[in-house]
Design brief:
This protein is an alpha+beta fold and 353 residues long. It has two domains: 106 residues, PurM-like, N-terminal domain (60s Ribosomal Protein L30, Chain: A, 2-Layer Sandwich), CATH 3.30.1330.10; 186 residues, Alpha-Beta Complex (Phosphoribosyl-aminoimidazole Synthetase, Chain A, domain 2). The protein has nine helices and 14 strands. Strands 9-11-8-12-10-13-14 form a seven-stranded mixed sheet, sandwiched between helices. A five-stranded mixed sheet has the order 1-2-7-5-6, with helices on one face. A two-stranded antiparallel sheet has the order 3-4. A hairpin with a 5-residue loop joins strand 13 and strand 14. Helix 2 packs parallel to helix 3. The radius of gyration is 19 Å and the shape is globular.
Length: 353
């Protein structure tokens, strides 16, 4: 069988290859299910909405299981909480399922489970059900974790929608990728590239001048704070494919140009140095504790102030805008030039989430 008929690592790393696999192989063969719900599977948002319940599920295959700043337990809970949150819902419950490889030390499994519980406590979202399977050696790289999460609308969802409508005249309810307007202000809640580079450095044994630590953690309190101010049109946690992939998803689904400024996108010196050494674009690296938000312009400053008042939002900043002045996603460089940020073919760092 030819290689183009076989699934590759690039097909699961975010970006265009993964989108093609989802559309051509998965959605194509889900004709009954793909259009069900108020926000259906085929919209490819971070979750679905069925009967006023936001529902999402995720599989985690990070390698190594432990990395600077976290482990697969933190990652699994935070990732699912975050997917529910960026839809505009309040996460209320999680499931946690393990596929354990024979030979994994029980103390590692206990440590990972404790991390998952601590993250659930930070988010305020309990783990209420789960499952455990054990497979033979060589089948799971130690541990795969599957999580699912449920969320419900709260008063902040309706308040947020009223502020958006008062400001733009456009009605909305949930926070969806298709709702970024041509005058939206784009906010990023912190530095990019931390998670992907931390995992890569640990996996490959790279030593950088400064230790790079993952940003992994729940962002539901950040989204809730922004919606309490009101005026959030869309939100996204830029995981696989980084902010490059997330912004291009907004561009494609909302049909609006996006202009971001290089000088305003925060990147830690250690991450920038590591990316330069490895030839990696930091905008294409996955993050696990950050959010992008598209908000109405007259609420942008107030939202940034609200975010900066929270532990995970201290570096929140405005990085750009929706606009009719450009097509696609365009970066205004530090020297005043412009370059197109293409959707990545795949995340340059596989197996990070």
């Amino acid at each position: 069988m030819s290689d183009d008929k076989l699934v590759s690592m690039a097909d699961g790393a975010g970006g265009e290859r993964m989108q093609k696999l989802i559309h051509d192989t998965l959605l194509k063969n889900l004709p009954f299910s793909r259009s069900a719900g108020e926000v259906p599977l085929e919209d490819l948002d971070d979750g679905a909405v069925v009967g006023d319940v936001v529902f999402t599920t995720d599989m985690h295959t990070v390698k190594p299981l432990f990395f600077p700043g976290g482990d697969i337990g933190v990652l699994s809970v935070a990732g699912t909480v975050n997917d529910v949150s960026v839809m505009g819902a309040k996460p209320i419950a999680l499931s946690l399922a393990y596929v354990v490889e024979e030979g994994l030390p029980t103390e590692d499994l206990a440590r990972i489970t404790a991390s998952a519980d601590a993250t659930a406590r930070e988010a305020g979202v309990p783990i209420v059900t789960g499952d455990t399977k054990v497979v033979e050696r060589g089948a799971a790289d130690g541990l795969f974790v599957c999580t699912a999460g449920m969320g419900l609308p709260t008063h902040t969802l309706d308040h947020n929608a009223r502020v958006v409508e008062d400001s733009t005249g456009r009605s909305q309810r949930w926070l969806l990728d298709s709702q970024v307007s041509s005058d939206a202000t784009i906010i990023l809640t912190g530095h990019v590239g931390d998670h992907g580079l931390a995992v890569l450095a640990q996996r490959e044994g790279y030593g950088f001048d400064t230790e790079v630590v993952s940003d992994v953690g729940p962002i539901n309190h950040l989204v809730e704070a922004a919606m309490s101010v009101g005026g959030v049109m869309a939100a996204k946690d830029p995981t696989r494919g980084g902010i490059a992939n997330a912004l291009n998803e907004w561009d494609e689904k909302s049909n609006v140009g996006i202009l971001v400024r290089e000088d305003d996108i925060p990147i830690r010196p250690g991450v920038l140095h590591g990316c330069e050494l490895l030839g990696i674009d930091p905008y294409e690296i996955g993050n696990e504790g950050k959010a992008l938000m598209a908000v109405v312009p007259d609420k942008a400053r107030s939202i940034v102030e609200a975010l900066r008042g929270l532990p995970r939002g201290g570096d929140a900043t405005i990085i750009g805008k929706g606009t009719t002045e450009v097509e696609g996603v365009v970066l205004e460089t530090s020297v005043g030039g412009h370059r197109v940020i293409e959707p990545p073919i795949s995340d340059p760092v596989p197996r990070i989430c």
